[in-house]
Amino acid sequence: MIGKIAGRIDYRAEDHVLIDVRGVGYLVYCSDRTLAALPPAGEAVALYTDLLVREDLLQLFGFPTLVEKEWHRLLMSVQGVGAKASLAILGTLGPEGVSRAIALGDWNAVKAAKGIGPKTAQRVVNELKDKAPGIMALGGTMGAAIGDDAADVIEDAPTATAKPRPAPMPRGNAAAQSEALSALANLGYAPGEAAGAVAQAADDAPDADTATLIRAALKLLAPKG
């Protein structure tokens, strides 16, 4: 299994890049969002990868963070969602947006992805809602793929002059959301309702710290009336 690739972009296409890793080229398919964030040809890059194996096909899919890779794997577990549909959802919403949409039961946000109909969007939300808290919690602990591995590629290639670009940080404070989820779980709230409340609180205040998110989520979870 190929889980991560660090090398230099040889060329970019509409839906994939060719990454040269010490003379071996790997074709890696990515979402529109990921492709837009990648550096130009000739520069160093590192991506987490997921290998799709079929009887007549081997395809690598690349992701800047492990959180996005995990969402890709979960999305593909839903009936009717293949690799192309998963990348469309991630390209439209990003991993943080997918987390919020599923935690809040917002299937209309999922439906905004190209090629995703209402039935598929509802199925995604219904089947993955209980899994959203775990992925949201990972957001505070899993970093970007770019790092020492890409730097090593440059050091091993004396003629190269490009420097690696750091991968874009996810929107919002992922670490604070993770800690808020953990705190609500310790208070006895069910994972699904805790994730929904934290997602709503983070939407209202994207830069809020842990304590602020917890207070806001508790207000949302408080009995009405």
Automatic annotation (TrEMBL):
Domain notes: Has three domains with a flexible linker between the domains II and III and assumes an 'L' shape. Domain III is highly mobile and contacts RuvB.
Keyword Transmembrane helix: no
Gene assigned in the entry: ruvA
Alphabetical keyword list: ATP-binding, Cytoplasm, DNA damage, DNA recombination, DNA repair, DNA-binding, Helicase, Hydrolase, Nucleotide-binding
Quaternary structure and partners: Homotetramer. Forms an RuvA(8)-RuvB(12)-Holliday junction (HJ) complex. HJ DNA is sandwiched between 2 RuvA tetramers; dsDNA enters through RuvA and exits via RuvB. An RuvB hexamer assembles on each DNA strand where it exits the tetramer. Each RuvB hexamer is contacted by two RuvA subunits (via domain III) on 2 adjacent RuvB subunits; this complex drives branch migration. In the full resolvosome a probable DNA-RuvA(4)-RuvB(12)-RuvC(2) complex forms which resolves the HJ.
This protein's name: Holliday junction branch migration complex subunit RuvA
Superkingdom of the organism of origin: Bacteria
Subcellular location: Cytoplasm
GO cellular component terms, semicolon-separated: cytoplasm; Holliday junction helicase complex; Holliday junction resolvase complex
Membrane-traversing stretches: none
Biological process terms in GO annotation: DNA recombination; DNA repair
